[in-house]
Amino acid sequence: MTLMIFLVMFVMESATEKLCPLRASIDVLEGEYFFLCYLESRQEHFQEEAYTINWYKESAGKRQLVKETHRIASQMNFLEFWPAELSDSGNYSVIHSNGKQNLTIQKWTLNVLERNKSSCFNKNHLTTEIKSAGTGHSLKCSDLSIYENESITWYKDCKNYEHETERELNFRTLTVQHSGIYTCKILISHEGRIYHSTNTIKLVVEEDAAEAVTLEIVGHHEEIETEIGKEEILNCTGFLGYYMQEDASLYWLINQTFPEQCTGIPENEPSVCEEEFKKLQLGNKFYVTRLLRIKKVRDEDMHHNFTCMLQADESTQIKIVKLKKGKTQDLPVHIFTTGMVLALLFPFVVVAVVFVFVMFRVDFVLFYRDTCRRDDTAGDGKEYDAFVSYLKDCASPIEEEREFALKILPMILEENFGYKLCIFERDVFPGGAFVDDINSFIDKSRRLIIILSQNYVSDRAIYELESGLHKALVERKTKIILIEYMPILEKPSVPHAGKAYQDKDQRAL
């Protein structure tokens, strides 16, 4: 009895192996019956510990448990779609759980292709086989269902082909006329409804014998220059020929050890991981490719052999990639050029800034004071910003000179700019000693504004000029601002600056 059970299970497992090719990426047409299946090792049949089987779908970065519906059903090692829809596209996985740990058995990427309403097939859902004329060949209808007694029909270029109903379409001798697109259609009855599943093959028969194609890995052994801490992605691509070989496998080894699979989640990604196996078709040539992702190159990675292996039709090809520390790279050209341009422009920019500052220094100072609300003269003990010295009697035949000193100058400096002026006739009370008052108010002022004219240098106001020059040149207590209101024909007899210094030294003695 035990032997009988073992034989039955062995037969079931053999059938499962036949129906479950190891394909990481699968394409299927919408509206067709389809199934996913996985293989269990023989030891799992005899495990005494109970476990559960759950199917999951990952879409948009979220993994959700696949629940059975009237359209999606789980049976033994199979997940069936009655039928497949566009929304079924995504990444699928099957997980065994015994309540203590979860074990991922297999993963797939399912692509549900939109049906071409004007044709019986989708150009993205076919395989190409290139054969030479004069040879025998057979087209095989892939295992599209797990049920028996299905009805099989073959079509050539979407027309019924010679009423063939066998799973294989045999050609004793191929001719160019046999070229075409062949589609096998399987009808399946389920719960009173008829579903179908198709497989399409493009057969190309060439008149002359085609050149023999050798399985090979694109590129040769290589060394890649890199740096510690840098991310590196190693690419391995294998050329299969002019038709897709379903038994082809491509994988990486690190010192004869299999790397972990990439999870797609950056924070949980292993330091070195292998991307999913992908198939490519460029024209009538077929390729397989797989990436090895090194998150951050370590020093020990420089001593590893990263080996890519391609296997198909009992043939094996390898490619070895090694990492080595690269030479220190020169400064990039665009950065060097930018630096040189900036270095050449910098002196011109400095000169321009200095020129603008010199030309508008007063405006900058006023703007600074207005913006920061700061006055550098606060606390210097001065009461006035400037003492205005001008012609004080009516000796001047031009009245505008006094009007400039008493009206225009205060209106501009006091009312518009907020300076405080000391004007003798306005701010000094009468009755005091003239000379003492003049010296006192000049000492209280930060500047001495002298409005020069021919009448001014001929008047007694010349004393204010002499006193101001003495304080500016000898005592260095104030600064003088000269305004030539009218041209001076005769030079005033003002003591020379050197004489003023000499007088000061004599007084000191």
Describe the structure using short key phrases:
alpha+beta; glycoprotein; 6-stranded mixed beta sheet; disordered N terminus; Immunoglobulin-like; 5 domains; 509 residues; 24% helix; 5-stranded mixed beta sheet
Short summary:
The radius of gyration is 50 Å and the shape is rod-shaped. It is an alpha+beta fold and 509 residues long.
Walkthrough of the structure:
The chain is an alpha+beta fold. It has 5 domains: 2-113, Immunoglobulin-like; 127-206, Immunoglobulin-like; 218-325, Immunoglobulins (Immunoglobulin-like, Sandwich), CATH 2.60.40; 333-368; 384-508, Rossmann fold (3-Layer(aba) Sandwich), CATH 3.40.50. Helix content is 24%, strand content 35%. The chain contains 10 helices and 29 strands. The chain has helices at 2-19, 42-45, 333-359, 361-372, 400-416, 424-427, 434-443, 454-457, 462-473, 497-508, and strands spanning 25-29, 34-37, 52-59, 62-65, 72-75, 78-81, 90-97, 102-113, 127-132, 137-140, 151-156, 159-160, 168-171, 180-190, 193-206, 216-217, 222-226, 232-241, 249-254, 260-261, 272-274, 278-282, 285-294, 306-312, 315-325, 384-389, 421-423, 445-452, 479-484. The strands form 7 sheets. Strands 16, 18, 20, 21, 22 and 23 form a 6-stranded mixed beta sheet that branches. A 5-stranded mixed beta sheet has the order 1-8-7-3-4, with no helix packed on it. It has a 5-stranded mixed beta sheet with strand order 9-15-14-11-12, with no helix packed on it. It is rod-shaped. It starts with a helix and ends with a helix. The model is unreliable at 1-17, 42-46 and 497-509 (pLDDT under 50).
